[in-house]
Amino acid sequence: MINLNHSGFLLSFSSAMTHRIVMPIAREHRWLYPIDWRELSNLIRFRRAKGRCEHCRRPHGRDVRHLGDGIWWDEDAAIWRDGQGRGLRRLPTPDELAWAQPGLTGIDPPASLRVTRVVLASAHLNHDPGDNRPRNLAALCQRCHMVHDAEEHRRRRWRNAFRVRAIGDLFA
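Request: output the structure for the sequence above.
Response:
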């Protein structure tokens, strides 16, 4: 297996010439992760979660059609699912949406379908990268990971802005 560093991402090529992008860990946080983080992450994402997001059930590595608000089409079950993975019955199938005639009386224009490739990541539920207990780790897709981390990201943005202002006051 050959490892190449290309634009900040680690690409791994096997003999079958398939590749996977490994999400980089910020340089200042690398020392918080155990040396076997890659194996631990694979265990959580593919053994325990069986390659699906543990919050919304989106499948890893597949292109998923969605409406942009958390509702997505599950190809395997042929049903729309919400952001928590529950089935929705009132929505038409993607094919029916494509055939809908917009502008006719009583028929709304079809919702625009977006396509996103799902990539699972292991998330720390308590936001502490040093706490690697299995019950603190979850396999989450991009959307669920961002929703889960939203409050932490707001807190960090505020702290960084506060620090910048404080340094500005100190040297003004």
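The CA atoms of residues 52 and 58 lie 5 Å apart.
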